[in-house]
């Protein structure tokens, strides 16, 4: 058994006008941006799938433009998560998952199901949602993670529910959203959202060092001691876990550079 899972860091998407000068080479055609970005970082979180529907040819194209070993995280469509009764999301979920996401094959990473900041924790309702999550789509194994944004989720019952279904909770480094570092699944997903456009690497070098150390702890099967948990009394099984880290929102201008700097540290530590 490997002693550590794989750590991947990236940003949200690959099309953002300020990146034309802050990240991409001068005069690089926009049609070549995905090819370039996917060779600078090992993963990208796709936000567009939350707002819009895509068809299989698009996923085939994305897969063809990224190198071997690259992984896309897809944000689940909003019509699945933005509803009063989550247990009624089955049809919308199947429509999204059946739209061609399996065409990514080995390049399909976690599916991120993001909930509004107004959505409160209702144990029965949320369990009904977790029961809907399929293990495979068209023969491709699916990995699911959930991002919750209401403080009512910061309770041991929520962490226990996720452990029951082996679904990780997103750790959000955010100014106002709850931070939940409980390890409840077979991988870890973190979204770093307190960067700054004034910092060349999105996060200060010292903060990057700290986040790399946390990612390495997660990858080795532990839980960072300095992050808050919903159920701190619960022991976490120690086993290698893959770790996905995304630089999102605040500091977006330099988010790709933050991900590159993060991976440089990870790779240097591995040598």
From TrEMBL:
<dbReference type="InterPro" id="IPR036520">
    <property type="entry name" value="UPF0759_sf"/>
</dbReference>
<protein>
    <submittedName>
        <fullName>DUF72 domain-containing protein</fullName>
    </submittedName>
</protein>
<dbReference type="InterPro" id="IPR002763">
    <property type="entry name" value="DUF72"/>
</dbReference>
<dbReference type="Pfam" id="PF01904">
    <property type="entry name" value="DUF72"/>
</dbReference>
